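Issue 218. Parser rejects a valid record. Input:
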Amino acid sequence: MTVLVLLLWSLFLGGYQYELQFNAAGDVYWRSLNYIFDGSISLFIPVLLALALRAAGLQSRSWYGKKAHWTMRLPQMVLVFLVSWGGGVAFSNWDCWS
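Output the parser choked on:
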């Protein structure tokens, strides 16, 4: 679904966005590759971090399962959300660091 949205954006409205940003007409293939790469990185990193935190919690036997009370699960869900959000933000702004 993400790839479809990114391809449609790069075909129709992405040209206007590229022209406003860089003051030049861009190639549709380069735009689609750029949008797909950036979109997949910004979606892949948070999922990878969330799965890594869950795997680490399961290895240390401190991870509460689905049947635990919500007050026991809430801190670990907040931790996973904040770490994955922070990782996604950090890697979506990767071009600002170089």
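Fixed in the parser; the record now loads. The chain has a mean pLDDT of 80.
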